[in-house]
Write a structure and sequence with these properties.
With 173 residues, the chain is mainly alpha-helical. 75% of the residues lie in helices and 3% in strands. The chain folds into two domains: 79 residues; 94 residues, no CATH class.
């Protein structure tokens, strides 16, 4: 790929979003490890600890899992039961099966987006859970769920459309 191709690729919103996702994933993971290490040092060396580190690290674990799921979905490397799929003949049957699987995943992610948005919205309007730590209300944390599932829904929609196009054309995936 020449310089022009690299410049065009770097302007692609999907490429930019992928880089942002990767950066967020790395930042949260490094932050989580550093905070856990700090808490261990503070407890074992100085006999003290910071009360807000453990809830924040637990929250960061959820964020790492969600962003990791988004990245896996982006690359179509999510968990899948493909024992039968890999033995299907290449062509229309395999493409149609991929379409059905991706459509099912779209529906599941869409329902999860809706459900988690309802939980977020209820907590935003009637805060029952309080704060995870000072300055971080539960509703802010809950907002990550519908965002992550929404992104995964859009990606599965894209994969479904691509699989449908391959099925119609009789092409291999």
């Amino acid at each position: 790929m020449g310089m022009v191709g690299q410049r065009e690729e770097s302007k692609n919103p999907l490429v930019i979003f992928a880089k942002v996702e990767d950066g967020i994933l790395m930042l949260i993971l490094v932050g989580m490890v550093l905070l856990a290490f700090l808490q261990i040092v503070l407890r074992n060396v100085f006999g003290i600890g910071l009360i807000w580190i453990e809830p924040l690290v637990r929250q960061m674990l959820l964020w790492v899992a969600l962003v990791g799921a988004m990245v896996a979905t982006r690359d179509h490397n999510h968990i899948a039961v493909d024992a039968v799929f890999r033995f299907l003949p290449s062509g229309r049957i395999k493409s149609a099966t991929a379409f059905l699987c991706d459509t099912f995943a779209t529906i599941v992610c869409c329902l999860l987006t809706y459900s988690t948005f309802l939980v977020f919205y209820r907590e935003l309007n009637d805060p029952l859970l309080g704060n995870i730590m000072p300055g971080l209300p539960h509703w802010a944390s809950l907002l990550t769920l519908p965002i992550a599932f929404g992104v995964m829904t859009l990606r599965f929609v894209r994969f479904s459309i691509l699989a449908l196009l391959h099925t119609v054309k009789g092409e291999a995936i």
